[in-house]
Amino acid sequence: MTMLGAGNKLSPLGLLSLVIRRDLVLAMRRRADVLTTLVFFVMVVSLFPLGVGPELDMLRKMAPGVVWVAALLASMLSLGRLFSADYLDGTLEQILLAPQSLSLLVLGKILAHWMVSGLPLVLIAPVLGLQFDMSAQALWVLIAALLLGTPILSMIGAVGAALTLGLRGGGVLVSLLVLPLCIPVLIFGAGAVEAVSTGMSVVSHLSLLGAMLLLALVFTPWVTAQALRISME
Amino acid sequence: MAINWFKYSAPSAFYGLAGKLVPWFAWSSAILFAIGLYISFFVAPTDATQGEAYRIMFIHVPASILSMFIYLIMAGYAALGLVFNTRLSSMMATALAPTGALFAFISLWSGAMWGKPMWGAWWVWDARLTSELILLFLYFGFIALHASIDDPRRADRAAALLAIVGSVNVPIIYFSVKWWNTLHQGATIKFTGTSMHVAMQQALWLMMLACWCYVIAVTLTRVRSIILERERNTQWVAELEEVRS
Fold it and tell me: Do B158 and A159 touch (CB under 8 A)?
């Protein structure tokens, strides 16, 4: 993090974009990692019709839940990468020592992580929705719900990733910690898409997702920063 | 006279106090259980609509209430330990977790036994059942995180943070599950406006008290073991009679 040496003169937004750019560059150097999550997501979703049968009526009904559960699992899978590389090469210690706000630096890392692991899922989801014969309107709502929901998954996941940093069996453990906390996102995310077919209000679900996103945006970077300090001391 | 409020926050002082308190709570619990179970099985009348199966509620209701209370108390102790760095608070949180998980499990298990004759199904996706299940998962997360960190200090602090995040999340989970449930199906069976028979109330209160005493007795016993384990290298532990013999 030599870049941060000059960080004293940076504005908070400049700092944020610096961290995001750094993590994006690192991710682009290791493209296979990004693709693995995406392929996992596509495969899990494609397995469901094979498991439950090809009746379109049933698939259409199941689609929102299946896509959301798959997105949840895919985001769990990518959480290990959030801090572990920086932890192993000592960068994380430097980040903790930096004079800038740790919460802000953590937020940057979370956003970058979402861009490489969450955003691709949002973009590929409509294609998977077509496999399940979803209507055009439902697909738009699915995109909107995923756009609001997947950042929350990354943020809650960051707390779990920070708490389990460097532990044996961290991958399974982080799922055990984080999945119960993600249930509200799953409920309202899948509920929004389902509301299209039942003719109920989509806005209420999306508003609640938005509220949760704001709540997570305020609290989780700080909690993650505390968790990192506990794990690194 | 100045009272030293913090005397028993030292594990060495609390170890002896807990040892003196355990038999009292254990015996109260045993006696209350005996009376409570007698009233629930032999004195309380058969319910007009639910028959004999309603008697499961005498263990189900205390278990459900306690499973939720214990999580809050656990998170409270964990927060105390995190903020003031008091070792004993963290030990109490650790000691409470297995009992809380046990009660959440008993609540789910007894609920299933009651649901089969009443609703005709072992499990329905009712809001309360679902949130109780998630509560059990939260307990498992707390225990698993604590168990997988070797350094006890880091384990305490990490688990404390998780407990606090969990307790903030509990209301959100509860309401989301509740709204999710009402979107899917109509309100399920509720105990609305049933005036309970006096004997039923007595039995319920006695069982509740018995469970409380059980929780306190078990937690204090467990915290004594944790204290001994953590402080095994200290002078005062080496001087204990039970350790020397």
Answer: no
User: Please, which residues bridge with residue B51 across strands?
Assistant: B47
Q: Does the CB of B134 have a partner CB in chain A at under 8 Å?
A: yes
Token pair 């008993």 in the structure block, residue: B106
Burial of A206 by CB count in 10 Å (0-12 exposed, 13-18 middle, 19+ buried)? buried
Q: For residue B131, which of A187, A44, A174 has the smallest C-alpha distance?
A: A187
Q: CA-to-CA distance for B222 and B4, rounded, in angstroms? A: 25
Hey, is the C-beta of B158 within 8 angstroms of any chain A C-beta? yes
Condensed to tens digits (0 to 9), the pLDDT of residues B25-76 reads 999 999 999 999 888 888 887 776 777 778 888 888 899 889 989 999 999 9
Give the single-character DSSP code of B185.
S
A184 touches chain B (CB under 8 A): yes
B33 close to B207: Cβ distance less than 8 angstroms: yes
Report the candidate in A184, A150, A73 with the shortest Cα–Cα distance to residue B130.
Answer: A184
Angle between helices A56-88 and A183-198 (to 10 degrees): 150
Question: How high is the ipTM of this complex?
Answer: 0.85
Domain ranges of chain A: 12-232
Distance, C-alpha B89 to centroid of its chain: 16
User: What's the whole-model pTM score?
Assistant: 0.88
Judging contacts by C-beta atoms under 8 Å, the chain A residues touching residue B125 are none
Summarize pLDDT for A89-135 with one digit per residue, the tens: 888 999 899 888 899 999 999 999 999 999 999 999 999 999 888 88
- Which amino acid is located at B168 in the chain? V
> Which tokens in the block code for residue A80?
């290990």
- Please indicate if any CB of chain B lies within 8 Å of the CB of A157: no
At residue A143, what are phi and psi to the nearest 5 degrees?
-60, -45
- Report CB contact under 8 Å: B165, A181: yes
Closest CA to B66 of B183, B193, B214, B229: B214
B141 chain-A contacts, CB cut-off 8 A:
176-177, 180
Q: Which two tokens stand for residue A151?
A: 């950042």
Q: What angle do CA B150, B151, B155 make, to 5 degrees?
A: 85
> Could you tell me if B169 lies within 8 Å of chain A, comparing CB atoms?
yes
DSSP code per residue over B6-70: TGGGSHHHHHHHHHHHHHHHHHHHHHHHHHHHHIIIIISPPBTTTBGGGGGHHHHHHHHHHHHHH
Interatomic CA distance for residues A207 and A33, integer angstroms? 33
Run of H or E including B145:
helix B127-148
